[in-house]
Amino acid sequence: MTTTNPLKANRAHLVLVAMLFALLAMVWQPTPARAHAQIVSVSPANGTVVSTAPVNVSIAFNEVVVTKSSRLQLLDSKGKVVATTFVREENGTKYSLKPKKKLAKGTYALRYSVTSADGHIIVGASAFGVGSQKSTSSKSVTLKSATSSVSLQMGSTVGQVRLEHSLVGVSSIELRHSLLKAPMELAVTKDQLVVLPFPGKWTVTLRQSVSQYQELTYSGYVTVKFASK
User: Is the CATH number of domain 139-224 2.60.40.10?
Assistant: First the structure.
């Protein structure tokens, strides 16, 4: 009578189980989640002042996005929509607005809302100036969280202004205005130039990472006026 070697049988069983698991891993391997579309560039860049009026205002993404003219608008300093020609470029990774008339000296905001391939809607805004001068006016703005408060220095007139803070661990800074209906996200650097395109109330929101598990949100506002001539 032939006797089966238990050790060999056990090894064969383990090999069979390993092959089965490998096959299941190949069949059931989850599809990697698609990341949301990211902005590659905005022209003119957010916070800049150009000496001559741009021929077009554009925004580019790292993948194809979908939008339309009513969701990509150029606004002047009074919040009025500037007449432009809407252009889809580079197979949908870039969109441009070509002003029908040369942009006059002043401040402008680009308001956008696009849909990425994964269905995520991305909204935001940026601002730039044409031939406008940097404002030297500044005031202290108090931002409050649930447990503490901080202050930052920020210009209070329409145009290019300086924004300064002394916090560490800042993860985001946003400016909001009722005319934009979208957040204008800034760099998190401690000293930067930004463009405030409209007068009125601007809400400032700053988020600070204080630990791996805790983030503080500070909020406050500044009232912006047109610079006196």
Answer: yes
